[in-house]
Amino acid sequence: MVLRSFDSIYEDVPTEQRKNFVYFRQTHPPKYAHIDGINWAYIDNVRGDEPVLLLVGGLRVADAAWQSIPMLDDVFRVVTPTYPALNTMNELADGLAGMLDALELEQAYVLAGSFGGMLAQVFVRRHPDRVKKLVLSTTAVLDEDSQTRYQQALTMMQALSDEEMAQTAQSMMFDTMAPPAEMHAFYRAYLDELYTERLTRDELISTYHCLLDFAENHDLQPLEKSDILILESDNDATFDEATRARVRALYPHAQHFVFKGAGHSPGTSQRELYFKVVKHFFKHGTTP
């Protein structure tokens, strides 16, 4: 396969967005750690005294957080992993603990959205002493209907050719993200690059294995921990009110903040407010 150039993939992206993304990649190069026999890539700004473990969603890769990391790294040390092709949430969660060990970090604040929020719910239960405060953003607890849907999606994806899988993944993820109009060209290019040039078939499929594992094998029990903030959007088209209510029920002492009209990705659609809320919670334990 002949790899296309960055300029050819991102040629339709507005100049300022393209320049900002290039600058981010230049100033936040990936680092690597070998954890329990698995190679993990991650971004670490190595600034600030208080570490934040930032867990991305279904995009899987650390630089998917290219607009989020700068909103935090003026104050915090932000560690953002790329998920390797592991097929269970326990493996991913234990890898996160191993990453903190490798970086000699006892604890971290955790900010996790969507798929990352599901992983964080496993992580905080397997490694509770590693989580100082937890923000769960537009995430879910999966039920039997979810399990059926993800099994159908996995079966469908496995039957596709690599090219068909890349096209399907791009379309599905763009619809899930529902980025603001001014970011449409960027995210179409980013998803094109991600699914045709960067992620392997095994990496893409592993997302569905992990979702199924989360649905089938993690009967989460309520957690009494109080240093938790749940962020929701009142028009999240990915996780409906019933799904969001199941998350709230698991954290009876958590605080809540609801964004108005922010869709599934309030960190993108209402970035300034989103990170104002997150930073205030990490610093003060309350919402502004």
Structure, described:
The protein has an eight-stranded mixed sheet, with helices on both faces. 39% of the residues are buried. The chain starts with 5 loop residues before the first helix and ends with a helix. The protein has 288 residues and is of the alpha/beta class. Helix content is 48%, strand content 16%. The radius of gyration is 18 Å and the shape is globular. Helix 10 links the parallel strand 7 (228-233) and strand 8.
Layout of secondary structure:
Layout: H1 6-9, H2 15-27, E1 31-35, E2 38-44, E3 51-55, H3 69-72, E4 77-82, H4 89-102, E5 108-113, H5 115-126, E6 131-137, H6 144-158, H7 162-177, H8 184-198, H9 201-217, E7 228-233, H10 241-250, E8 255-259, H11 266-269, H12 271-284
Parallel strand pairs: 3-4, 3-5, 5-6, 6-7, 7-8
Antiparallel strand pairs: 1-2, 2-4
Helix pairs in contact: 4-5, 6-9, 7-8
Q: What characteristics describe this protein?
A:
8 strands, about 290 residues, single chain, alpha/beta
Q: N-to-C SSE series?
A: HHEEEHEHEHEHHHHEHEHH
Mean pLDDT over the residues: 95
Overall geometric form: globular
Q: State which percent range the strand residues make up.
A: 15-25%
Q: Count every helix, treating DSSP H or I runs of 4 or more residues as helices.
A: 12
Q: Number of DSSP strands? A: 8
Label the structural class: alpha/beta
What helical percentage do the residues reach?
40-55%
Largest sheet, if any? 8 strands, mixed
Rg over CA atoms, rounded to whole Å, is: 18 Å
| Major sheet: arrangement of strands | 1-2-4-3-5-6-7-8
